[in-house]
Design brief:
The complex is a heterodimer of chains A (325) and B (118). Chain A contains six helices and 17 strands. Chain A has 325 residues and is of the alpha/beta class. Chain A has two domains: 195 residues, 3-Layer(bba) Sandwich (FAD/NAD(P)-binding domain), CATH 3.50.50.60; 105 residues, FAD/NAD(P)-binding domain.
């Protein structure tokens, strides 16, 4: 197996990972970013980013492309659409194997794997994905012109996209599992004002149904357990994200929702391993906070490696913050 | 215009020429959205490995996109992109919405096997 050594490997190429790559490469670290999907992470889900400081309206794809170019221009190597087939973070030298045929070594790793859309996990969901079920209103909304659709979720994304979908659909019914919304008040108000939007609360989807494409959903009222079948043409699912941290289970400490536990320097419980972005335990998840995390994790990794070079045989535990419980 | 590194099919004529010139063709018909971009990128990544396949993109809103949008195999599709695999000019597989690298390479390995292309 081909083996190559780097100073730092970053796993993930969203805004946190790309920022870490920029800072590492600019500090003359030999840096590698490994990414299982497309570069940009959740940024590319956004057609228009209006609140990135210093940048007028820009698409998530364009911002991701610029970040990638910056990282590469500074000398960071980026490999995307790869499968991470082995991850060993326990030793002094971290080992990551890719596609079962390439091996990469590094003294420090930054985990920046972000999150992925949560799915309902109900019958029919996978079958009718792209055939009536969607996770992207701006991508697929115009397929439902004049149709009756549902939106599943109760946060900002669900209600904002429900309003957006009324440009196309004749009716939008929001299905939410709780008796109240988690969205900001202005998002709730806007949705409630829209005459095309109806609400079914304390309910969830039991099953999606159809033939060649989606044509129905069974909705379960949670307090009573009663189920009702609705005829629908489409379903948009916006029920949040889950952290992409399962590959690191057992290697680093995670909380009960799978988020990586870090200290203020974004060090994990494993020496030489740092984490940044949506995969860590944090309150606010924005592109700007991910960029900040990527910066901190990179600088912490640089300092870690510098201390190792100055004191290669000594443990430096005393200098570390021990905020990890 | 699609901002990808792939060759674009820009007209009906180019579409027919592409199918005539290549035994195995993968066409991703989409926009520049979050479900489409990952597919264009993985096509760009793997084309060096799958040299016996012609990888193309086609803009979903272009007039000549009807060549993909009206295919019988795509009539139940409600999610971008529409991805169509052609062998000897005939449709052998279609998919709707985002696809992972594994999903794409499984299709390529099944329908465009190297020994069958020789």
């Amino acid at each position: 197996m081909d083996t190559r050594a780097f100073d730092v490997i970053v796993i993930g190429a969203g805004p946190a990972g790309l920022t870490a790559g920029i800072y590492l490469a600019r500090a003359k670290m030999k840096a590698l970013i490994l990414n299982e999907g497309a570069v940009g992470g959740q940024m590319v889900l956004t057609h228009e980013i209006a609140n990135y400081p210093g940048v007028d309206n820009i698409s998530g794809y364009q911002l991701a492309t610029t970040m990638r170019k910056q990282a590469r221009d500074f000398g960071c190597e980026i490999k995307s659409n790869v499968a991470l087939t082995r991850i060993d973070l326990a030793g002094d030298e971290k080992v990551i194997e890719v596609n079962d045929k390439e091996r990469y070594l590094a003294r420090a790793v930054v985990i920046a794997t972000g999150g992925k859309p949560r799915t309902l996990g109900v019958p029919g969901e996978a079958e009718f994905r792209g055939k009536g079920i969607s996770y992207c209103a701006t991508c697929d909304g115009d397929f439902f012109l004049g149709k009756d659709i549902i939106v599943v979720g109760g946060g900002n994304s669900a209600l904002e996209e429900a309003v957006s979908l009324t440009k196309y659909a004749d009716s939008v019914t929001v299905i939410h599992q709780f008796d109240h919304f988690q969205a900001f008040p202005h998002a709730v108000e806007e949705a409630r004002r829209n005459t095309k939007i109806k609400f079914i609360m304390e309910s969830t989807i039991a099953e999606f149904q159809g033939n060649e494409s989606l044509n129905g959903a069974v909705i379960r009222h949670l307090p009573s357990g009663d189920e009702t079948k609705f005829a629908i043409d489409g379903a948009f699912i916006f029920i949040g994200y889950i952290p992409n941290t399962s590959p690191f289970e057992g290697a680093v400490l995670v909380n009960d929702t799978g988020e990586i536990v870090v200290n203020k320097a974004l060090e994990t419980s494993q020496k030489g391993v740092f984490a940044a972005g949506d995969s860590i335990e944090k309150k606010y998840r924005q592109i700007t906070t991910a960029v900040a995390d990527g910066t901190i994790a990179a600088l912490s990794a640089i300092e870690y490696l510098r201390q190792r070079r100055e004191h290669p045989a000594a443990e430096r535990e005393g200098a570390r913050e021990t905020a990890l419980a | 215009m699609l901002q990808t590194n792939l060759e674009h099919i820009g007209s009906e004529e180019e579409f027919h020429e592409t199918l005539a010139a290549h035994k195995n063709v993968m066409v991703c018909c989409g926009r520049m959205g979050p479900m489409c971009i990952p597919v264009y990128e993985l096509m760009d990544e793997i084309r060096g490995e799958y040299t016996h396949v012609a990888f193309r993109d086609l803009e979903f809103d272009a007039p000549h996109a009807h060549l993909i949008r009206t295919l019988p195999e795509c009539q139940n599709f409600r999610g971008l992109p529409f991805t169509v695999y052609f062998r000897d000019g005939k449709v052998v597989k279609t998919t709707s919405s985002i696809q992972s690298k594994d999903q794409v390479t499984d299709i390529l390995d099944e329908h465009f096997a190297v020994n069958a292309a020789q």
